[in-house]
Amino acid sequence: MDAAMFENLGAIMQDACRLTKDRPIVAGVSGGADSLTLLDALVSAGYKVVVAHLNHKLREESQNDANAVERLAARMNLLSCIESIDVNAYAREHTLSIEEAAREVRYRFLFEQAHKYNAQAVAVGHTADDQVETVLMHFLQGAGLSGLKGMTYRTILPPYDGKIPLVRPLLNLWHEDTVVYCAMKRLHPHEDVTNSDLSYLRNRLRHLLIPVLETYNPRFREALWRTSQTLAADHEILAEIVDEAWNSALAESGNGYLGFHAEKFASFPVGVQRSLARRACQSLCATWRDMDFETITRLTAFISTPDRSSSLDLPHGLYSFVEEGIAYLSARDADPPGRWPQALSDILPAPIPGRVNLPGEWTLVSELWEIPALARERIQKNDDPYQVWLDADKLSGPLSLRSRRPGDRFEPYGMDGHTMKLSDFFINVKLPQRARESWPLLCMDNTIVWVPGYRPAHSFRVVESTRRLVYFKLARAVE
Question: Which of 106, 103, 104, 115 shows the shortest CA–CA distance to 29?
Fold first, then answer.
């Protein structure tokens, strides 16, 4: 590694990685040539570094590696964080491959240390070889442009942290360069024997496929690396378009879920839809990799199709569903908020006149109206399904709000007195499945008088002979 190359590395740290010298950087150090080069280059350039090493317990000698990294940090007068985790056990518990589990626990550990030390970034020693293998792996599994561009010098990984970046200063160096660097600096890297284990996909690419491809083009690695750089520049253009689309379509977000305006989402070109779907999946799931074209295609088709089924199951514990024009992508253990009123488990009296408060700042207000002509005028102009006028003289008993019960039947307005199962009515009006169990019902004894948001019962409708009316309005206080 010549002086010019080292100067270029310093420029990458400053310009591409946007590192500063006023706050520490957490460096992931395994003890191999790549990570030792990363560590020494950062320190030599004057950056404050915290050494972080996670023992995956995949090899008998892994504790020796951890001890060696700890001793190196001590000789360099650097803070170090050395921890261990049983990756095999973690993979079994979370139904992940060893590669996926190792990646997830490592990044969680590194970003935890970044928070602990108020670090400006997490730095890892990925090289041009890692870039080539990543792009090739993505290509073989049908990735889009965001996968084929490979890794970048600076990126945000939302599942781990939404603000602290991951930086890769060595992306333009080959592994041979880091070996030479360590020899020049008298650093003593150790070789991880799992790098030769052909049970891992990345190792099969490195030791089997790439050598075969180099028989067709001896400079195959350089060619694929240049291709990734070209696609990365193209992706920057697409990213600007996707950013605008994301901001335009995103309706809400929370812990473990995202919601998009379905019609807006469907209005974008298919390529933008797929990019939005990939970003959404990656932001919710740390183990989601940009490789599965079929899943992304199914997801975009589901959101963009007017006649949607109830939900779409996706890999990695995610699923999608559409409610009231909002297309949700959610983890199974998340709880996206409903945009609807919900009744408490207890029966709530609904006096006339009066006010009843429900969860989510919803309120039912009732008023007695004794001017039929004015009421009929309002009824004709009303298009709010959460407002209703009923014949007061037909409401012979006390009213209450409750959720549905087994066996409930309803007499929808317009069906001339015929009743149907409430469950069938909910299906017919396409009430979201999640909302049905606690949907508030205005009742007189066991009789459903009004299903807010949909219809009153036929028997309690306003007719020509009606002289006294009761007005009900269900609304959110925030509205």
Answer: 106
Count helices and strands in the chain by DSSP H and E runs: 17, 22
Partners of 376 in the β-ladder: none
Half-sphere exposure of 227 (CA within 13 A, CB side): 17
Identify the bridge partners of residue 28 per DSSP, sorted by sequence position: 52
Of 167, 192, 213, the residue at which a domain comes to its end is 213
Residue 370: domain span: 348-476
Are 113 and 258 contained in the same domain?
no
Same domain, 188 and 106: yes
Verify that 291 and 355 share a domain, yes or no: no
Domain match, 208 and 260 both: no
Domain count, the chain: 3
Task: Indicate whether 271 and 395 sit together in one domain.
Answer: no
Claim to verify: residue 175 and residue 276 sit in the same structural domain: no
Question: Which residues does residue 83 pair with via DSSP β-bridges, in sequence order?
Answer: 54
In a domain, 143, yes or no: no
Residue 107's SS3 state is helix
What's at 67, amino acid-wise?
N
> Which helix (H) or strand (E) element contains residue 131?
helix 128-140
The answer to whether residues 249 and 364 belong to one domain is no
Is there a domain that residue 61 lies in? yes
Q: Could you read off the pLDDT tens digit of each residue along the chain, which spans 479 residues?
A: 555 666 789 899 999 999 999 999 999 999 999 999 999 999 999 999 999 999 998 887 889 889 999 999 999 999 999 999 999 999 999 888 888 899 999 999 999 999 999 999 999 999 999 999 999 998 988 777 878 899 999 999 888 888 999 999 999 999 999 999 999 999 999 887 777 888 888 899 999 999 999 999 999 999 999 999 999 998 888 889 999 999 999 999 888 899 999 999 999 999 899 989 988 988 888 666 555 778 888 999 998 886 666 788 888 888 898 887 889 998 888 877 777 888 877 899 999 999 999 887 899 999 999 888 888 888 888 888 999 999 999 998 899 999 999 999 999 998 887 899 999 999 998 888 788 888 999 999 899 999 999 999 999 999 989 999 999 999 987 54
Supply angle C-alpha 374, 375, 380, rounded to 5: 100
Partners of 329 in beta bridges: 258, 320
In a domain, 155, yes or no: yes
Round to whole Å and give the CA distance between 347 and 367. Answer: 20
Assign 379 to helix, strand or coil: helix
Q: What is the DSSP letter of 64?
A: H
Q: How far is CA 56 from CA 80, 82, 83, 91, 394, in A?
A: 17, 11, 9, 11, 72
Q: What is the distance of C-alpha 157 from the center of its chain? A: 11
Which tokens go with 215? 């028989």
297 within a domain of the structure (yes/no): yes
For residues 457 and 441, give the distance between their C-alpha atoms in angstroms, rounded to a whole number: 11
Residue where a domain terminates, one of 172, 196, 213: 213
